[in-house]
Amino acid sequence: MTSYMLKEFKLKLSRSIPCRRVILVYAYGEGKMSRTVADAVDYKGYPADRIKTGGWVPAALILGIEICERLSTMGIAVNLVTYLGGRMHLPSADSANIVTDFMGTSFLLCLLGGFLADSFLGRYRTIAIFTLIQILGTATLAISTELPQLRPPPCHPRVINNCKQANGFQMGILYMALYLIALGTGGLKSSVSGFGTDQFDEKHEKEKAQMAFFFNRFVFFISMGTLTAVTVLVYIQDEANRSLAYGICSVSMFIAFLLFLSGTRRYRYKKSLGSPIVCIFQVIVAALSKRKMELPYDVGMLYEDSPEASRIHHTDQFQCLDKASIVVEGDFGSNGSSPNPWKLCSVTRVEEVKMMGRLLPVWATTIIFWTTYAQMITFSVQQASTMERSVGNFQIPAGSLTVFFVTAILITLAVYDRLVMPLWKKWKGQPGFTDLQRIAIGLILSTAGMAAAALAEMKRLSIAKAVGGNTTTLPISVFLLIPQFFLVGAGEAFIYTGQLDFFITKSPKGMKTMSTGLFLSTISLGFFMSSFLVSVVKKITQTRNGQGWLADNINYGRLDYFYGLLAILGLINFVAYSFCAVWCRPQKAKPAVEMESVVKGSSAEEKC
């Protein structure tokens, strides 16, 4: 029977069956491809049709939400420090900490968003709900910056030292707006990337290849949102009206929300498998309750109830958790049908927890990068505000210097996508660097960026000392800061795609949203670490006259020392990361034969 005749026969057969949802199987040469996606459903709950759902169009609608979220968040963050200092009259270190705390909270709340998505709401509903929250937050911020009652009175340029700071009520309204935005960001970011990858089937060769490009294009397009934020929005904030810029953020997010809803029929939805946090605790509790028991020599004696196709084979790391799979009397209920999950867990469930555990060393050693990143939207912007920024008759807003940062990201991603990936595939047979290699490159570039920042600041301070620290605009070009923006920006291009790839692909299927939140929490902790370092350094180095490394007027401080400290911390962190990357490489599946050689001579507790 020819291929054409076979197709016709199956088509007639499908029409003769009254069921609406028929799984059609077509023969293509030697292989077969199902028209439905095995682990996904459509908006009605039926098996997802590969042709009618998923792919680049739905993924693009999801990306639209992330682009506008980045437009809002970065449009606020990169220039917020100038608003806090210039309009709310706060000291430079306090302004920097408010910005980093706001950004840190935004990413920390990704853990909450991930938990809600995995446990109750699903990714689609989570994105919809938290988009509305962010729209409310940006609208509130637009109002708070427009009403004069919510700002202290303006300062006369000659009596700047006697400016009245914003009072508690004014700061309270500002905080309410910022943290509504932070809550919206947390819910969105935890689900957007995961929901985007849900539109591609890992088991389908063509769609798997599309997913490999999705990570790079995801970062590329959200970087375009950042680029628009640091150019157009920052210019509107400085030269026209700040509340107008924030209003644009709110309107653009609302439009993206409507476009997102328009794709409801086209999306693929993955069924929620319950709270991953509960699953993790079940394994830990079961293992602790059997901590004094000896592991069997044969892995096959451990409990397993997962279907063969979805099983995760046993690995040697974290062997103390294997005790959760030892079968003892009382593990099963009175009817003997299913075990108590707090007493007995399958090998697959234990391996899922191990997979999450293997993410933690990389998670811990990537935090320092985002501490470095925080300087690009705080102290680097303050540096730019003291330097010559004129190009002809046009003056570049200080916050717009981050355009070089974003440009570096876009250039790096374009070169990597169009040049490095094809060449690497021809040479090594792999589509580009591995996720761990990309993270390593990002860490190296960020450390070099802080070294360049320290050198640039030394030059700037020498000029400030020569002409006087009270000079409003120092006779030194702002383009001196380009190397630090470019190096850290190129580093983000590598580390963001590397982390996104690592945390999504190396986590269990039912914990991908949680692992995305875990990845985004590194950004959060990086910002919080920046706030912590700023507070500690300011306290330790502050002199009696209120100066120190991080003086209120950076012309009288030693910001170069602070950058140098970050470069040293980055170098130490890279060494630690190298060891962690070797340790957390995927373990080969252990056949169900023997553990005697592993267990013999040492207890299982010592192996954990």
TrEMBL record:
The keyword Transport does not apply. GO terms for biological process: oligopeptide transport. InterPro entries: MFS_trans_sf, POT_fam, PTR2_symporter_CS. Keywords: Membrane, Transmembrane, Transmembrane helix. GO terms for molecular function: transmembrane transporter activity. The keyword Thylakoid does not apply. It is found in: Membrane. Its main location: membrane. It is a multi-pass membrane protein. GO terms for cellular component: membrane. The chain crosses the membrane at residues 98-117, 124-143, 173-192, 213-237, 243-261, 359-382, 394-416, 436-456, 476-497, 518-541, 561-584. Pfam families: PTR2. Belongs to the major facilitator superfamily. Phosphate:H(+) symporter (TC 2.A.1.9) family. This is Uncharacterized protein. It comes from Escallonia herrerae.
